[in-house]
C-alpha cells in the first residue's frame, strides 16, 4: 500500500488509497484536543467541526481524528515501516518533522504502558524508611523535652504512646495518671509538682509527630497494596515491607529477579560484606531478610533458614517478573515445612 | 562538579572554536577553555546551566564533566564531524544533556535520540518537547527491527551506551543507518567491557575491531573528565 504525505487545510495528513477511497491520518495529532482541554470542551469541538468541514470540501474523510496513527484499533491500518518509507521518499526537512512526531507519540504511548509499580514501591519504601527515622528522632527529642516538666513520663516507655498522651492531655491530668501507674510510692508525690514549661509548644510538637507516625502507617498500607499488585508472590514469601526493601536495594524487580539467591540473602548487608572482603572479618549470613519472622524464630539455624528463604524469594521474584500467576502460598508453605 | 551559578553575564566575549567545530564557541580570556553553544530555545535546558547573553543571543555552557563529547573537545580532538543541518542518530541519550547541545549545533537538522530506560526517557521527552529537532525514541539500540522502522538514514551516529557488546552495536548501527563517507563517534567505558583488564588494552582491542569496517580518524582518552573512558571518531568508507 502506498502512502503519501499531504497538506490540507493547514493540517499535515498521511493518506492512502483504500478501495478507491482516500483515507487520511492526522499524523501530527493536531485534531486532538489541545493540552489541558477536555474532549468535550466546546471551543475545541467547534474548531474540529470547522477543520472537518474544510477537509470535507477537499473531499477528505478523516479517520481517527485525535489519534496520531490508528495504532491500536486499526493495527493493520498503518505499517510504520511503510510510512517511514513514504516520508523518506518525500525526503525534506518537514517530513523528518513528521517522523519526529511519530516517534514522540510512540514513545509517549509506550511510557504509558511501562509498569512503574516497582519504582513506586521503591519510592514509597524510601519515604517510609525516612519517616521511620524522623519519627524516632523527633519523638526521642520530645521525650527529653517532656521530662523537664514531667519526669513521670518515664513510666511510658514507648515514644509513640508518649507523644499521643502528651498531645491529648493537660499536664496535671497526665501527671496524675502516670503517678497512679507507679507501683510503690514511698513518699507521696503530688500530681504535677513542677510547673509546666512551654507546654503548648510541646503539645503542638507532639501533635505533629503523631501526624508523621500516621503518615508512615498510611504509606505502609499503600506499600502493601502496591506490592499485592506488582509482586504478589514476593509479598507472600518475604512480607510486604521486606519485599519492598529488597526491591529498593536491587533497584527494580527486573534486577532483583536476575540476582542469584546468594546475593539476595546478603542484600542490605553490603557494609558487612565489604568488611569481610577487605579485612577478613566474619562473612555475614544475612542482610535485610533477617527481619523476616521465620528467620527470627529459627534460632541457631539462622544461616540455613536465610539461605532457604533467599531461594524462595528469588523464585517468587522471577514468577512476579514473568507474570507467572500466584504461587506464593505454596512457596511459603514449603518453606515453613522445611524450617520446622 | 558543577560550577557555581554565574548566569546572565554580560560583556564577555565568545568566539568560534574553529572551522572543524561549527556552532561551538569558547569563552575568550579567563582561565581555561569553556565551551558554549547558542541555545536553540533561547533559554537554559537543564537546571544550573550557565548562560551568556551576547548580541541578543543566548549561549549555554557545555560542561565536559557532564558530557563526553564536550570532554573530547576539551582534550583537543581533531574534529567531530557534526555540522548544521545534519541528521543524527544518538544511541544512549539518557536525560538528553549531550543531545541538547548537539541539537544546538545541528539546528535545522534532526536528532533521533534512542534510549532504553523509561525512567530517563521522561526527561528526554521534555527536552524533545522544547526542541523541534529532537525525536525521542524509547527503544533498545540492539533492536534493529524497531530502529529500522523508526529511524531514517543519517549523517552522523553517536553512541554512548555502557554495554559489553557496545563496539559491535556501533558497527552494526553504522552499517545500517550511516550514510557512506560520513562520521560516527563511539564513547567507550572500559569497565563496562571488562573490569579485570587494563583500559588501554581494551581500547586497543576496540580500535582494532572498529578498523575492520571503519576508518578511525582520531581518538581521545577522556581523563580527567571521565575515568577510563575513550572516545573514537570514525568515518564510514565510501
Ligand atoms: C552514560 S549514559 C549516556 C549519557 C549521555 N550520552 C550524555 O552524555 O548525556 C548511557 C545510557 O545508555 C543507555 N543504554 C544502555 N544500553 C542501552 C541500549 N542497549 N539501548 C539504548 N540505550 C541504552 C542507558 O540507559 C544510559 O541512560
What do these coordinates show?
The complex is a heterodimer of chains A (340) and B (238). With 340 residues, chain A is of the alpha+beta class. Chain A has 15 helices and 4 strands. In chain A, strands 1-2-3-4 form a 4-stranded mixed β-sheet. In chain A, helix 4 packs across helix 5 (159-168), helix 8 (232-238) packs antiparallel against helix 14 (302-321) and helix 14 packs antiparallel against helix 15 (328-339). With 238 residues, chain B is of the alpha/beta class. Chain B folds into 2 domains: 7-63, Phosphorylase Kinase, domain 1, CATH 3.30.200; 71-236, Rossmann fold (3-Layer(aba) Sandwich), CATH 3.40.50. Helices cover 28% and strands 29% of the residues of chain B. Chain B is built from 7 helices and 12 strands. In chain B, the strands form 2 sheets. A 7-stranded mixed β-sheet of chain B has the order 8-7-6-9-10-12-11, sandwiched between helices. Chain B is globular, with a radius of gyration of 17 Å. Chains A and B meet through helix 2 and helix 3 of A and helix 3, strand 8 and helix 4 of B.
Amino acid at each position: 500500500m502506498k502512502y503519501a504525505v499531504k497538506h490540507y487545510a493547514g493540517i499535515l495528513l498521511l493518506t492512502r488509497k483504500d478501495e478507491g477511497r482516500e483515507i487520511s491520518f492526522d499524523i501530527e495529532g493536531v485534531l486532538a484536543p489541545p493540552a489541558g482541554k477536555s474532549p468535550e470542551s466546546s471551543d475545541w469541538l467547534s474548531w474540529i467541526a470547522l477543520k472537518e468541514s474544510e477537509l470535507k470540501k477537499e473531499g477528505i474523510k478523516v479517520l481517527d481524528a485525535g489519534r496520531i496513527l490508528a495504532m491500536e484499533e486499526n493495527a493493520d491500518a498503518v505499517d510504520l515501516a511503510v510510512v517511514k518509507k513514504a516520508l523518506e521518499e518525500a525526503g525534506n526537512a518537514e517530513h523528518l518533522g513528521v517522523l519526529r512526531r511519530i516517534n514522540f507519540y510512540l514513545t509517549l504511548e509506550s511510557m504509558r504502558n511501562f509498569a512503574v509499580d516497582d519504582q513506586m514501591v521503591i519510592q514509597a519504601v524510601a519515604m517510609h524508611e525516612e519517616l521511620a527515622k524522623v519519627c524516632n528522632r523527633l519523638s526521642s527529642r520530645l521525650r527529653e523535652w517532656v521530662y523537664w516538666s514531667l519526669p513521670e513520663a518515664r513510666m511510658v516507655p514507648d515514644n509513640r504512646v508518649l507523644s499521643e498522651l502528651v498531645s491529648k492531655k493537660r499536664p496535671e491530668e497526665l501527671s496524675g495518671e502516670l503517678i497512679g501507674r507507679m507501683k510503690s510510692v514511698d513518699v507521696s508525690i503530688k500530681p504535677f509538682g513542677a510547673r509546666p514549661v512551654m507546654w503548648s509548644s510541646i503539645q503542638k510538637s507532639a501533635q505533629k509527630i503523631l501526624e508523621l507516625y500516621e503518615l508512615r502507617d498510611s504509606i505502609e498500607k499503600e506499600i502493601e497494596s502496591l506490592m499485592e499488585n506488582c509482586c504478589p508472590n514476593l509479598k507472600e514469601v518475604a512480607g510486604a515491607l521486606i519485599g519492598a526493601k529488597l526491591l529498593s536495594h536491587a533497584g527494580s524487580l527486573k534486577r532483583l529477579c536476575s540476582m542469584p539467591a546468594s546475593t539476595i540473602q546478603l542484600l542490605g548487608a553490603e557494609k558487612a560484606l565489604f568488611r569481610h572482603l577487605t579485612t577478613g572479618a566474619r562473612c555475614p549470613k544475612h542482610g535485610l531478610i533477617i527481619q523476616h519472622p521465620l528467620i527470627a524464630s529459627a534460632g541457631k539455624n539462622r544461616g540455613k533458614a536465610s539461605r532457604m528463604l533467599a531461594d524462595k524469594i528469588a523464585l517468587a521474584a522471577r514468577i512476579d517478573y514473568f507474570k507467572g500467576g500466584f504461587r506464593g502460598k505454596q512457596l511459603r508453605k514449603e518453606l515453613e515445612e522445611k524450617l520446622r | 562538579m558543577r560550577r557555581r551559578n554565574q548566569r546572565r553575564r554580560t560583556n564577555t566575549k565568545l568566539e568560534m572554536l574553529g572551522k572543524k567545530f561549527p556552532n561551538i564557541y569558547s569563552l575568550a580570556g579567563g582561565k581555561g577553555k569553556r565551551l558554549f553553544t547558542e541555545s536553540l530555545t533561547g533559554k537554559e535546558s537543564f537546571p544550573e546551566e550557565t548562560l551568556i547573553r551576547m548580541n541578543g543571543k543566548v549561549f549555554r555552557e557545555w560542561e565536559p564533566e557532564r558530557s563526553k563529547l564536550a570532554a573530547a573537545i576539551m582534550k583537543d580532538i581533531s574534529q567531530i564531524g557534526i555540522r548544521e543541518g545534519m541528521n543524527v542518530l544518538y544511541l544512549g541519550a539518557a536525560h538528553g544533556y549531550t543531545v541538547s547541545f548537539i541539537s544546538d549545533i545541528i539546528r535545522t537538522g534532526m536528532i533521533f535520540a534512542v534510549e532504553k530506560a523509561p525512567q530517563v526517557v521522561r526527561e528526554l521527552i521534555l527536552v524533545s518537547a522544547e526542541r523541534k529537532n529532537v525525536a525521542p525514541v524509547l527503544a533498545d539500540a540492539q533492536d534493529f527491527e524497531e530502529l529500522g522502522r523508526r529511524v531514517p538514514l543519517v549523517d552522523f551516529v553517536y553512541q554512548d551506551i555502557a554495554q559489553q557488546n557496545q563496539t559491535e552495536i556501533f558497527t552494526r548501527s553504522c552499517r545500517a543507518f550511516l550514510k557512506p563517507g560520513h562520521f560516527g563517534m563511539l564513547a567507550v567505558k572500559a569497565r563496562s567491557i571488562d573490569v579485570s583488564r587494563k583500559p588501554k588494552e581494551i581500547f586497543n582491542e576496540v580500535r582494532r575491531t572498529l578498523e575492520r569496517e571503519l576508518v578511525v580518524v582520531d581518538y581521545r582518552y577522556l581523563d580527567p573528565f571521565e575515568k577510563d573512558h575513550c572516545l573514537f571518531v570514525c568515518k564510514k568508507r565510501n
